[in-house]
Design brief:
The protein has 366 residues and is α+β, with helices and mostly antiparallel strands. The protein folds into two domains: 2-137 and 241-354, no CATH class; 143-236, no CATH class. The protein has nine helices and six strands. Strands 1-2-3-4-5-6 form a six-stranded antiparallel beta sheet, with no helix packed on it. Strand 5 (200-212) and strand 6 form a beta hairpin. Helix 6 (258-284) packs antiparallel against helix 7 (297-319). The two termini are 28 Å apart. Part of the ABC transporter complex LptBFG involved in the translocation of lipopolysaccharide (LPS) from the inner membrane to the outer membrane. Its main location: membrane. InterPro entries: LptF, LptG/LptF_permease.
Length: 366
């Protein structure tokens, strides 16, 4: 038990550090993206931290299996570098014993990942999507920066408002530039207000002029109006969402739709991958002390990238009906499990290790 406690302590400390680093990297990246959307006016500043928190919880279903995988690679890599693992193996601690420890720790960790993947992450997505819908239903004036030119979404339309009205319900001295049917269009108005009609967002302009075409040409027109509505596409304000990813897991169990079956299998894949990747890391971490702690680290990263990409491809195939649900994305896990079994046979006692009967100490790597 002393060996198990020591290995567990080493693994737990590394897992905590790796998880913290990965989480910090993700939060920093997503926070920068949210700041950009606040500057563009598509996200309100007062909900940025709530969105960041919900997105961070959602990301844990991906970060946790990766963190556990890297933790095993780094922790065991250090033990091999400092010859501690070599000494353990030489003293009769079989690789079977080490692998069994990682397996049971991985099972416990996979239960946490399953809780996040099956319940917490879908809830966080649903809350985030609902918040985005609520933002799209507001007037959006809180996001308008007076005195700044702003592009509306991915379009070529440029919007400008000199200032917000004193009552806070509109904008004054509004300018809009866009292209319609190949012709330049300019609209200026004394006042503008955003309104929602039939689920669509409009900018209601009052007391202004519309200039169509190029000055000096025959088709150039100037139109004066008392009221004029400009359609703002919903996608320019609200982020695109995948509603299936927010469906409760209990509903996915009862569904036969390909995209919902794929989503369910994807959620289950997270805890499964946590165990399989950890077992793989036990053998990938085996290095010669002279090779250094990170000798197999980049190989491990490459293996993870290939594995995660295959999972993504398999999920897409299930969604499109190219693969039967019974096969689903399980074949990817099967390939990884096969790789783990082959490494077991190659590195530590063959069939006896698979059966958990290995007593003889495994040879240290040369």
């Amino acid at each position: 038990m002393i060996i198990e406690r020591y290995l567990f302590k080493e693994l737990a400390g590394t897992l905590f550090a790796v998880t913290a680093v990965l989480f910090l990297i993700f939060v920093s990246s997503w926070f920068a993206r949210l700041l950009g959307r606040v500057a563009a006016g598509s996200v309100q500043a007062d909900v940025i931290f709530l969105l960041l928190g919900l997105k961070s919880v959602d990301a844990l279903m991906i970060l946790l299996p990766l963190a556990f995988y890297l933790a095993v690679l780094l922790a065991f890599g250090r033990l091999y570098k400092d010859s501690e693992m070599t000494a353990m193996l030489a003293c009769g601690v079989s690789l079977t014993r080490v692998t069994r420890l990682v397996f049971w720790v991985g099972v416990g960790f996979a239960l946490v990942v399953a809780l996040v993947s099956l319940y917490v992450a879908p809830w966080a997505r649903g809350e985030r999507y609902q918040l985005q819908e609520e933002m799209s239903a507001t007037t959006g004036l809180e996001a308008v920066a007076a005195g700044q030119f702003r592009e509306l979404g991915e379009s070529d339309v440029v919007f400008y408002a000199e200032r917000l009205s004193k009552d806070g319900e509109g904008m004054e001295n509004v300018f809009i530039q866009g292209v319609r049917k190949g012709n330049l269009n300019l609209v200026v108005a004394e006042r503008g207000t955003q309104v929602i009609e039939a689920g669509a967002r409009y900018l209601l302009l009052k007391n202004g002029y519309r200039y169509e075409g190029i000055p000096g040409q025959a088709d150039f027109r100037i139109i004066q109006f008392a009221a004029h509505k400009v359609l703002l596409q919903q996608s320019e304000v609200v982020l695109q969402v995948d509603e299936t990813s927010a469906v409760a897991t209990r509903q996915l169990w009862q569904s036969q739709k390909p995209h919902e079956v794929a989503e369910l299998q994807w959620r289950i894949a997270m805890p499964v991958s946590a165990v399989l990747l950890a077992l793989l890391a036990v053998f990938l971490s085996r290095t010669n002390p002279r090779q250094g702690r990170y000798a197999k680290f980049f190989l491990g990263i490459l293996v993870y990238v290939i594995y995660s990409n295959l999972l993504g491809v398999a999920k897409t195939w299930v969604e499109r009906g190219k693969v039967e649900p019974w096969l689903g994305i399980w074949w990817v896990h099967g390939l990884l499990l096969l790789a783990v079994l082959l490494l077991m046979l190659q590195h530590a006692g063959g069939v006896r290790l698979l059966l958990g009967r290995g007593r003889a100490p495994a040879r240290a790597p040369r």
